[in-house]
Amino acid sequence: MLMPAPEQDIIAQRLDLIAALRRIVPGEGVIADETSLRAFECDGLTAYRQLPLVAVLPSNVQQVAEVMKLCNARGVKIVPRGAGTSLSGGALPLADGVLLGLGKFNKVLDIDWDNRCAVVQPGVTNLGITRAVEHRGFYYAPDPSSQIACTIGGNVAENSGGVHCLKYGLTTNNILGVEMVLMNGDIVRLGGKHLDAEGYDLMGIICGSEGLLGVITEVTVRILPKPTTQRAVLAGFPTSESAGNCVARIIASGIIPGGMEMMDRPAIHAAEDFVHAGYPRDVEALLIIELDGPPAEVDDLLLRVKDIAERCGSVSLRVSQNEDERLAFWAGRKAAFPAVGRISPDYLCMDGTIPRKTLPLVLTRMGQLSEKYGLRVANVFHAGDGNLHPLILYDANNPGELARAEEFGADILRLCVEVGGVLTGEHGVGVEKRDLMPAMFSEADLAQQMRVKCAFDPNHRLNPGKVFPVLHRCAELGRMHVHKGQLAFPDLPRF
């Protein structure tokens, strides 16, 4: 995994740049010593690490704008960072870049009950939004497993989902507006509390843009009334294929659960050992199916889901009898990633999405790849929408294992595209999937996406080295020829 070679003219001005940043963000807002910078050397994709040139932690929008203006004038790169929970390396620092941390932007600014929305700063945690409105019976629907730590600014950058995205949508379906700072320091607003904005759907471009277009400084989100009834079903199956068939039949019947998650045997055992949620240990696959709505509707849906599960060969079936039990069912799933960390020194968490009907085929092929590479894999994923999260287990202390894990993961993502899916469902491209983009997009596709980047950041200073596999600048767009998917002289660096 190559990153752009550090620009020496930027590194040469480091001390002068630090002094200029301290004039904008006084006190402890600029971090320059090596020991303190270690806290920012990676995000959730810990296999890749790099100290930033300097880190700056502004506390208001004007400071962000001034930092952006300064860096734009000097040609200095900027890497925006939220809580650092990204699993694709989206917040990986650059040796010649300023890391711009938004951790101090952590206030809920306004709750508009009549319009069912809240205005929050980007450093507010995902769960923090729900905590701010739950006393009135409301909540924020997207709920990534890292919701206790991940921030709404990062959720917008990656278009995060969660276990309830099947019915209630991803981040893009639950935000109404953003305030953002462009690379030249301009502060702009897109959307707002109204339902639909006029003109181009710029919100659709910003959500999921991975920090390549601007720095988010405020977000307006939808809040929803909590369902009157929520019940969860634990259904165990003798094979992953039979569980996948159950998923397909539930959706085909017209039932859209609030959430529908699947775990295989390694993930089940790891989660149960960690959380003691009451998961069955004698099954190969486990579905967690949540149904919500009015009590009569939920009762009817429970009967239908139980019938489908039994006809698909379920060998165990358990329905939550109270709220504590429902939350316990979900606790194991929410803790699956740290639970797997207890059974392996290291793991790579992949993120691809496939058509639901191909789930049995993909799981079979992943088993074959596991044997090929000699590495275990634990599967945890959003079964309802086909968003897979295979966890490839490896030990970085063993020479060559990280490289094997990376190639294993790349083959899984290529498989997702091969069966009609996509490279990412919610974690983003970052550096992890950057060089796989040609497996999904043509040269023309990538050039068109680059044109959007150039409209916002013509000098390519915002989060460079991420998302685009051919890392050239906007001025060179269209001048680099790719023939049959191959660059001329592929051994030469393209940065």
TrEMBL record:
Enumerate the cofactors the protein uses: FAD
**GO MF term (any one):** FAD binding
Q: Where is the FAD-binding PCMH-type domain?
A: 48-226
Q: Which UniProt keywords apply?
A: FAD, Flavoprotein, Oxidoreductase
Specify whether Plastid is a keyword of the entry: no
Q: What superkingdom heads the lineage?
A: Bacteria
The family database entries (Gene3D superfamilies) matched by this protein are listed as:
3.30.465.10, 3.30.70.2740, Vanillyl-alcohol Oxidase, Chain A, domain 4
**UniProt cross-references to InterPro entries, sorted A to Z:** FAD-bd_oxidored_4_C, FAD-bd_PCMH, FAD-bd_PCMH-like_sf, FAD-bd_PCMH_sub2, FAD-linked_Oxase-like_C, FAD-linked_OxidoTrans_Type4, Oxid_FAD_bind_N, Vanillyl_alc_oxidase_C-sub2
- Indicate what this protein is called per its UniProt record: FAD-binding protein
Tell me the classification of the organism that encodes this protein: Bacteria, Pseudomonadati, Pseudomonadota, Alphaproteobacteria, Rhodospirillales
